[in-house]
């Protein structure tokens, strides 16, 4: 049986959390999900994650939490690292950065899954090399984990494509986060790795990547500092559904799943309704791998 994993893109503030809390318990049952991973770097007021945000998302059915450049914005993260083994900080932060680099977990069916994050370096704060960090993380995992998911938290599409192709055949999925805009390029690379440049934002779409338009506009027009409050309008869930072969770790399909308010209301109200996923499933080609020249 293929493993079904839902990856939820950057959850932004209370509108994003609310969408997950409302929809995920229903989605989990209707889609038969084995594991849910969520990027929570913006969950608390748009920056960082707190204990209560974590609890809300965990109770809704999130199994694993990835972070990003905003990982340490709320002090609660230190308590969370001590309390939970379901969060990881980016693997290419400096070596002394607090928090684990990998989440190791078993699905309800007992399949071991490893999850880690690397940050990009283009248009972002300086961090260690994501390629070398990935090699360091993957070395010890190769023995015992077939199913591995990497969150590529980066700004530049080209860098994300580079990283995903570097990881092709070594991870089950390499999914981009951080830009808050879902890309329509979901695919399975020749080595069997599912890839999408960005999973997109779970939060308010009547906004500038989750923040109030008026605040961002004033900042641009006047150069005066502004509070970039989280917006509220048009909340949506943006996620990606993966089917993975648990024996080989290869991706079988990848599909974008975006739900707006009306679809979320319907999934809550109508117990037998399975959302019609608007985007087709991209399925694995049967041709043999031509991943790498040795
Ligand atoms: Fe980010
Ligand atoms: Fe983000």
Would you mind describing this structure in some detail?
This protein is α/β, with parallel strands linked by helices and 294 residues long. The protein has one domain (3-283): Metallo-dependent phosphatases (Purple Acid Phosphatase, chain A, domain 2, 4-Layer Sandwich). It is 27% helix and 23% strand. It has 7 helices and 14 strands. It has helices spanning 13-31, 51-60, 76-83, 130-141, 157-167, 213-222, 261-269, and strands at residues 3-8, 35-39, 64-66, 87-88, 102-106, 112-119, 147-153, 173-177, 187-188, 194-196, 203-204, 235-244, 251-259, 282-283. Strands 1, 2, 3, 4, 11, 12, 13 and 14 form an 8-stranded mixed β-sheet that branches. It has a 6-stranded mixed β-sheet with strand order 5-6-7-8-10-9, covered by helices on one side. α2 (51-60) links the parallel β2 and β3. The chain is globular and about 55 Å long. The two termini are 32 Å apart. The model is unreliable at 287-294 (pLDDT under 50). Bound molecules: fe (ii) ion (2 copies). Residues 10, 41-42, 68, 178, 180 line the site of one fe (ii) ion.
List keywords for this structure.
294 residues; alpha/beta; Purple Acid Phosphatase, chain A, domain 2; 8-stranded mixed β-sheet; 14 strands; globular; disordered C terminus; binds fe (ii) ion
């Amino acid at each position: 049986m293929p493993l079904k994993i839902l990856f939820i893109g950057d959850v932004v503030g209370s509108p994003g959390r609310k969408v997950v809390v409302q929809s995920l318990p229903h989605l989990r049952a209707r889609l038969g999900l084995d594991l849910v991973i969520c990027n929570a770097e913006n969950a608390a007021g748009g920056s960082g994650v707190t204990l209560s945000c974590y609890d809300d998302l965990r109770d809704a059915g999130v199994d694993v939490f990835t972070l990003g450049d905003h990982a340490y914005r709320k002090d609660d993260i230190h308590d969370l690292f001590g309390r939970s083994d379901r969060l990881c900080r980016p693997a290419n932060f400096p070596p002394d950065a607090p928090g684990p680099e990998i989440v190791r977990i078993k699905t309800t069916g007992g399949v071991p899954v490893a999850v880690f994050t690397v940050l990009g370096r283009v248009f972002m704060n300086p961090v260690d090399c994501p390629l070398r960090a990935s090699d360091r993380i993957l070395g010890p995992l190769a023995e015992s984990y077939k199913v591995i998911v990497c969150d590529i938290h980066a700004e530049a599409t080209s860098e994300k494509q580079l990283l995903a192709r570097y990881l092709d055949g070594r991870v089950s999925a390499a999914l981009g986060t951080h830009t808050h805009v879902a890309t329509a390029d979901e695919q399975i690379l020749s080595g069997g790795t599912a890839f999408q440049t960005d999973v997109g934002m779970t939060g308010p779409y009547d906004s500038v990547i989750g923040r109030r338009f008026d605040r961002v506009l004033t900042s641009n027009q006047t150069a005066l500092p502004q509070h970039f409050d989280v917006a509220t309008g048009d909340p949506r869930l943006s996620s990606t559904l993966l089917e993975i072969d648990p024996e080989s770790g290869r991706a079988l399909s990848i599909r974008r799943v975006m739900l707006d308010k009306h679809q979320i209301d319907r999934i809550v109200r109508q117990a037998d309704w399975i959302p019609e996923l608007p985007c087709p499933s991209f399925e694995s080609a049967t041709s043999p791998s031509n991943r790498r020249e040795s």
